[in-house]
Amino acid sequence: MTQLTVDIGGRPGLDCRGFCEYCYFKKVKESAPFGCQYCLPFQKGCDYCSRGVREYYTGFKPLRDVADEVLLALGRIPDEVTKITISGGGDPSCYPWFIDLIELLSNIDAPIHIGYTSGKGFDDPEIAKFLIDHNLSEVSFTVFSVDPALRSKYMHDPTPEASLQVLEKLCREIDVYAATVVIPGINDGQVLNDTCKWLEDRGAKGLIVMRFANSKEQGLILDNAPIIKGITPHSPVFFKDMVTDLNLRFKMKINGTPLWDSEIRSPFAILFENDLLEKLPRVTKNATIVTGSIAGPYIEEILQKCGFSGKVTILPKEIACLITIDDIKEIDLSQISSTIIIPGRAFVHDLEAQKILSSDGIDRTLIRGPEMLTADGETSMGMTREEVLALEMNGISDLIRLINLYGS
Ligand code: SF4
Fold it and tell me: How far is CA 109 from CA 80, 97, 106, 233, 326, in A?
């Protein structure tokens, strides 16, 4: 499958008709780079952890530039393009040359996929027909709620009725994966129920229910918490149960992120597969595994089933990939071993973390773990259970190999 990705640029909040009330990019402040897996060993900060993570773009790219990039990419692709994905920091529905762009891309004669849109830029319901006629085959569409008043208030959609009409027409003709950030007391409960029913009745393929985050521990690492004062997000356990219940009551697939895919039973579906757990390598050494509070208990259980007697250090940060140096500073050095394995995607600079973890005079080895140990609900939406299990087998086997290679 040869995929062509078309990056239109744009800035979250600025190139999507203003910030949604719940946008994770709201109130982001300028701050020093975090450090990450891509940084050079002696330099904290690279393009990814200083710009990419904040989705810093200067604005939408002019159509001419996008067209040039597409032509260049086509020249490099030896095979026929089988899928075109439109992506960027801004919202494609707000791209000033959106119609021209779609006309241009439809000449390539491959299905077009819009990786993300809020639909806030769709003011005329007729655009749906235009998109369907010009090869749009799949879209991820943020709905928030099917109540136009709520879309207007929380997404600042100036034409919520038109956007919903577009969504409705697309649901009936192409693959629509809707998404909603769920804010307690605003669009959960009956409102969420109504949204699910509306989407299912119109033929949406699925809904990704995203847990609202409002604190640093919940993932707002860009000095921008709280996003909405006075709102306490659902607990992970409550959220997981809510997603399970929704998925049971509706026929379309409903997944949650960070938790949970109740059909695949991921993250860490492998825990339900004893034969696969037995196929994992046995742990023969000791190391301290650092992770976040959602993955922690699962990882501990899996590793213990493989003979691990070391320690899993579970930090208050809920999502392991969003661990930063502030979290590393909280680790009790008297409780860790001489080898520490941190999540592969943690936002820390290895040298800085290694120094902090050796600041009691004991020289410790810091190792970065695998990129992914499992799939969150957003990732698993387009995967089969076998694919998720294979991903978990690979990731966890790699983690165990690292423990056995570098542990004591
Ligand atoms: S449309 Fe998306 S990126 Fe833009 S403000 Fe809303 S949540 Fe943020």
Answer: 10, 19, 5, 44, 49
Whether residue 24 has its Cβ less than 6 Å from ligand 1: no
Measured in degrees and rounded to the nearest 5, phi and psi for residue 59 equal 145, -175
Kindly give the number of the ligand 1 atom that is closest to the alpha carbon of 116. 2
Q: Which atom of ligand 1 is nearest to the CA of 89?
A: 3
Q: Which residue's CA is minimally distant from atom 6 of ligand 1?
A: 20
- CB of 7 within 6 A of ligand 1: the answer is no
Q: For 177-222, how does the pLDDT look when each residue is reduced to its tens digit (9 = 90+)? A: 999 999 999 999 999 999 999 999 999 999 999 999 999 999 998 8
186 close to 150: Cβ distance less than 8 angstroms? yes
Kindly state the DSSP code that residue 174 receives in the 8-state scheme: S
* CA separation for the pair 287, 308 (Å, rounded): 9
With the most atoms of ligand 1 within 8 angstroms of its CB, the residue from 14, 25, 87 to mutate is: 25
Q: Which domains does the chain have, with CATH numbers?
A: 3-257 (3.20.20.70), 269-406 (3.40.50)
Residues 6+ positions from 373 with CB-CB distance below 8 Å = 267, 268, 295, 299, 392, 395, 396, 399
Confidence at residue 355, expressed as pLDDT on a 0 to 100 scale = 96
- Check pocket membership of 13 for ligand 1, CB cut-off 6 A: yes
| Sheet strands side by side (includes 288-291) | 311-314, 288-291, 339-342, 365-368
Smallest CA separation from ligand 1 atom 4, residue: 13
How many angstroms separate the CA atoms of 408 and 405, rounded?
Answer: 9
Give the contacts of 286 (CB within 8 A, at least 6 positions apart). 309, 310, 337, 339, 403, 407, 408
190, two tokens:
């009956």
Pocket-testing residue among 55, 91, 210, ligand 1, by greatest number of atoms within 8 A of Cβ: 91
- Cβ of 143 closer than 6 Å to ligand 1, yes or no, is no
pLDDT, greater one: 246 or 30: 246
pLDDT given for residue 27 in this prediction: 82
**137 and 111 in contact (C-beta within 8 Å)?**
yes
Q: Which atom of ligand 1 is nearest to the CA of 15?
A: 4
Hey, what amino acid is at 225?
Answer: A
- Answer yes or no: is the C-beta of 328 below 6 A from any ligand 1 atom: no
> Do the beta carbons of residue 253 and residue 380 sit within 8 Å?
no
